[in-house]
Amino acid sequence: STAMAAANAELYQEVQDKHDECLSSAALSNNGYIFATQGDAFELVFPTIRDAVMFCLESQEALLRTKWSAEALSLPSCGAQESRDGDQAPFAFAGPRVRMGIHAASLDAPVILADMAGNTSAWSLQQFTRSQDEAAGGRVVYNGPAVIMTRVLSDSAAGGQIVLSDTAAAMFGACRSAGTFAVLEDLGLFQFTDLT
After folding, report:
1. Whole-structure pTM over 0.85, yes or no?
2. How far apart are CA 160 and CA 100, in angstroms?
3. What is the dihedral of CA 159, 42, 24, 186, to 10 degrees?
């Protein structure tokens, strides 16, 4: 987004407005609470992993379906892109590519999750804190290691990609319905060192 803004600030604002509209609408329809924005980055919390995944998928799809002007598509990282031979799922898109990350966290103790077959799993989730920011008019904000990890996951994604932590992927895999069209691809384990 920095390169887009440097190339044409007015045109970037048009792209930013459409981006914000797509993400805000998807957040609303998937029980998301936007607790912070930083430039073009949204930070949200969801009651379930499924809600978070569906928000990401709907946001990405809304951005794909948006009619971008030819001028907007000339901005850096906005041009048309098609899949390469051998890609698992063929695609073609144009417009801004949004990086997204999902991490499972809790205000409380471990989460117990039961799947449709009655199997249960327990995850010891990273915790985060919730507080009211008086400087922001009493708005609820979230902080802590889990929020930092989610930022790192999002920053590690490629444009148009949604990266889930191992815990989030396991929780989503256990609760997703057969009708969910999301494809999870194991990218391997990565060690993140700067979590401050």
Report:
1. no
2. 8
3. 40
